[in-house]
Amino acid sequence: MPTQPNNSHLPFGDHKNAPWYGKDIISVKQFSREDLEYIFAVAHEMHVMVDHVGTFDLLKGKILASLFYEPSTRTSSSFTAAMERLGGSVIPINEVKYSSVSKGESLLDTVRTLECYADVIVIRHPEVGSAAQAAKAARKPVINAGDGIGEHPTQALLDAFTIKEELGHLDGLTVTLLGDLKHGRTVHSLARLLSLYKVKLNYVAPEILRMPAELIDELKAKGVEQTEYTTLDQALPQTDVLYVTRVQKERFTDEAVYESVKGAYVIDPKVMKAARERMIVMHPLPRVGEISPEFDDDPRAAYFRQMEYGLYVRMALLAMVLGKA
Ligand code: ASP
Question: Which of 167, 177, 196, 299 sits a CA distance of 20 to 30 A from 254?
């Protein structure tokens, strides 16, 4: 007899009526607190299964088209790993310059092409709203892997899952978002998602990279306590989660302006002396100087663990939209 683990207790199977079957994932605005609890539970089971068996055949025969118009290391490779760990396969289009996009093909025609071959499409594109447009044109589920400075919903889900796994809960936490809050799509999505919980948000950014006023107003209307700072020292001692971001060089038209703000904050062991003993430092990565490698061995440095949580969350999302969770 084959030695398959008994996973009848797991929330896996064929559930064509499952709430997320066939759905697109475009914005964190789609999610309720209950949805998050469900995603966290499935992601947790994915973690258990990967630890036990590494790869299993939940999505055997399914194909993911992975379409990236902007650079990516973690998002694209973790979606690929997620699909392959679930027994599925991937059409990778990471360098659109080698596809018909370089001949002038539109995003929508590219998406219509890929859905002829794949069951789900993951897309990253520099324009805000591009994933929503693609989803409108496509019959197959589309997952937004970053639309310019808009949103990065799967990153926010993995960020929230990281906080839950590392600190045990989200309610009652003080989360400090640091860096390029103007252009950072990860912080836009994360702040919105955290507004489902009773959190206090601190925003620390140079004057020209402040959190967009519309987003602050949106969260204010939901009753979220938010405070803005230009330096970290006041916010750090009360912080449970310090979420550091890179200044998004590719969003600047004037390089001199980028140079003037790029080194605004550097997290290192000395700075972190002012922080709590039990707290975590996160970063969506890549880092380009905002966190000193000298801090990497500190138990509070959660940014490498965060990448791994991303695999389990993306496995959960793929299983959900393909009706298997
Ligand atoms: N990897 C993240 C993103 O795609 C963060 C970053 O690039 O700074 O948004």
Answer: 177
